[in-house]
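hiii so um. not sure if this is the right channel but i have a protein structure encoded as tokens and i wanna go backwards to a sequence. like what aa goes where. can anyone help
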């Protein structure tokens, strides 16, 4: 099997806003996302820093999109990141993944 395309892509991390419930924060039982990497949105929602910038780029993304990237908090990433493109590691994309890749001049997975 080919290498996990997510390890060289990172397009999703530099395309979308990442909002999630405060219960995913390290300050809550069972939470793990570092508070310092987020900004409050509402009393119950937070956002990964950088994802509401223009252009968006998550503060936890390290490297060059489409070349070589890594999430600096991969084991502690929020739910939306865990749920995004669940089959990408198998080379199978989906609509959101395809849109993100196209924004960065990359071919959608599976093509």
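sure thing!! here u go:
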């Amino acid at each position: 099997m080919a290498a996990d395309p997510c390890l060289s892509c990172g397009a999703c991390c530099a395309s979308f806003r990442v909002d999630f419930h405060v219960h995913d924060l390290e300050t809550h039982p069972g939470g793990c996302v570092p508070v310092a990497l987020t900004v409050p949105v509402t009393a119950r929602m937070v956002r990964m820093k950088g994802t509401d910038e223009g252009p968006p780029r998550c503060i936890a993304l390290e490297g060059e999109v489409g070349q070589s990237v890594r999430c600096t908090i991969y084991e502690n990433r929020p739910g939306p990141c865990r749920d995004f493109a669940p089959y990408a590691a198998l080379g199978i994309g989906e609509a959101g993944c395809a849109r993100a890749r196209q924004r960065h001049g990359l071919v959608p997975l599976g093509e």
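oh and Helices lie at 79-83, 95-103.
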